[in-house]
Amino acid sequence: MDNDKPEKRLSLADATAFAHQLCLAHGASHAVASALADATVSAQAHGQHELGFGHLPDYLSGFATGRIAPAAEPIVTQVAPAMIRCDAGRGIAQLGFDRAFPALCSNAHQLGIALFAQFNAFTCGELGYYTRRLAREGLVALAFTNGPPLLTVAGQSRPLYSTNPIAFAAASAAGRLLAIDQASSATAYVNLLRAAEAGEAIPAGWAVDAQGNEMCSAREALRGTLLAFGGGRGANIALMVEVLAAG
Question: Does the structure show a pLDDT above 70 at 52?
């Protein structure tokens, strides 16, 4: 990155159009590009750069290499009155949610509860993006997802769970949102990567090395695994999310 190059600030609309064009240029369909651009800019606008434009290159690379199906159309099925299931077809999670969103909101308002379960999708990005959207429709929303094992508990060296994030959102009577979005690990994996790239030390309690020893070297920690926040309590949340998301 050229540090002498002046920054260019974009409006939300311009940033969305820019992200949309990048996705199209890497082979995404218009529907995929629109869904991903909206989610990217939302994460960026909420201060989550690592899940906004910082994460977009991973999607673009995935489109170009075929790791993510760039034009997949999700298959949404109403399997029960309060249950919607989605096969993302190796595409992005955001489009599947978009396709199910109207029915999901309608089911929740009519029945008092609704569940959306999606599989065969690339990483969902910012988990709070989904719960905020539901909360703006007057709903109380809870979301969770699992992924590759990156996290362990003290005394172990083998990763047992993903960082297994969980998100919650609800609107107040005044319309303001209460939103919680957190991982089960002591820190996000991207923070470990960033510290390793910069050659920086990490705080105690973030990770262990390949032998299970607590480690303050980010580069050594990359060969090991993250620790759960709050010790066993955080690991319990990771386990609950694993069961809820994939059990």
Answer: yes
